[in-house]
Amino acid sequence: MRTLRFLLRKEFRQIFRDKAIVAMIFFMPMVQLILMPLAADYEVRNINLAVVDHDKSPYSQKLISKIVASGYFRLTGYNTSFREAFGLIESDKADLILEIPHDFERNLIREDHEKLFVAVNAINGTKASLGGSYLGSIIGDFNGDIRMQLVTPPRFSQFPVIEVVASNWFNPVLNYKVFIVPGILAILVTMVGGFLSALNIVREKEIGTIEQINVTPIRKHIFILGKLIPFWVLANIVFTIGLLVARFVYGIVPVGSLLTLYAFISVYLLAVLGFGLLVSTFCDTQQQAMFIMFFFMMLFILLGGLFTSIDSMPEWAKLITRINPVRYMIEVMRMVILKGSSFSDILPHVGIVAFMALVLNSWAILNYKKTN
Amino acid sequence: MMQDDRVIVCEKLTKRFGDFVATNEITFDVHRGEIFGFLGANGAGKTTAMRMLCGLSSPSSGKATIAGFDVYTQTEQIKKHIGYMSQKFSLYENLTVRENIEFFGGIYGLSDERIRSKTAELLQRLGLKSEANKLVASLPLGWKQKLSFSVAVLHEPKIVFLDEPTGGVDPVTRRQFWDMIYEAANSGITVFVTTHYMDEAEYCNRISIMVDGRMEVLDTPANLKSSFHARSMDEVFYQLARGAKRGD
User: Fold this and answer.
1) What's the predicted TM-score (pTM) here?
2) Which of A3, A70, A336, B149 is spaced 20 to 30 Å from B43 by Cα?
3) pLDDT band, residue B112 (cuts 50/70/90)
4) What CATH code would you report for B3-241?
5) What is the ipTM of this complex?
6) Which residue of chain A is at minimal alpha-carbon distance from B15?
7) Which domains does chain A have, with CATH numbers?
């Protein structure tokens, strides 16, 4: 234990001696947390729409202006033929084509029935599918208005209208920032902790100081602990700063208890740092460690459930997410911050992450060899 | 009686890396308080041999005990009783002189009291008092090497291993360095040192010369010179080493 004290003192001295690194550790995540949620927006805006209006009636004009007024679309083409409009898609000037047929107005009023054609440029998948469904719902809405005002009196409506009303629990206004900020914070803490620990031991190998350590009677687990604890403290500070940014910039106040959150993050960080240290014991140069961490970080983040829902992943990807610590972190962040889950709710998550921490750190200790 | 004071006992110690035999069946003993010179051209296998003796590298075959502990099974015991100064400077450059001393003292389990007194004594002896709170990175090489040596013997080990401690150091500092080595030997620390400087070889009690992984000769400098009919160690070394196939 006394040896550990000397190790910790040395590590903290080295970390805080490099002022540039300290600034980066604390400042960069803050900037990212402030900037990224503003840019990484789930809502799709500025969808370029080309309209092919064969009808040119007041109704078709009304529909178009309703679509543009929604704020999601930008009218980039008003064409007379589909081929012309398709040219716009080909030259990437339009994402969607709405084709309004001849006699749109007449059919809508007299025959109570009309078809519209929507063509989607699916190269940008998110934009295409969301744009298509926005357009669908605006047209549906338009249709409803017409019927209300002009066609049949609603009280004697022949067809019962079923309307689905969604209520967004835990995020009442469906503010995507509330959803994404905890996730981004989870990733930032993971990145800072993971990279710092992955580069550390390997740095001592590169400089050669590890030789001087290996020739001392220091116990391996003490040495690993001496590396683990400083980064654990740093990552906790980064996490705290992140919570403060979430609170004061985005007004996100955790619904659940902070104690629950910190209980989880404490265990979680042991797993992430253990992984970084394990990578560090396998590598000989910082470059190698950097590339390996990059590889895993990308996997962890893309399969973490922040940007895409895990439920809609293929089975094999779902399997991978089960051994992805980031997934559990993001889930817990959302559960505790948005939903107010208690410690007993996240107990399974704590258990899994604790197991990972145990395995990864033991492996790191085993793989750190003082004698080659 | 002679048996009792052997601190390094080495028998047919071998290290292979694949097909390459870095150290080939070396056999020798080193006695307590001796200054043992370990010579050889670049690539002769000196560093590999030394790393095995320090418990940093495990031998492929052969036997060796250091301070009575086995190099296969008791490496951590060995490490308590030896000091090591590697070829590459390996104190922490971004810690101060004082912090390095404190750190290694702590790792070797010295009490706070001992660390304090040792630090004061060491700074005094090295004339580094005014540099105590400067980063090690800012010291000139000669001082760095002297500091490394002092840190290697801080915990008063039985044996200290020095791998080319005076490489690139000016003659005056080398002289001072050897004074420190003598001082350590006089206090009972066995010194195991590699060098490329033949004048330094003359300071050793006994010398071994390695050629292509094998230990070709082992004797006192005087005996070696007479048996090779040479006037200086330079000549002895040249006669042996020019037959070497390895090296850079």
Assistant:
1) 0.81
2) B149
3) very high
4) 3.40.50.300
5) 0.90
6) A372
7) 2-40+174-367 (no CATH), 47-150 (3.40.1710.10)
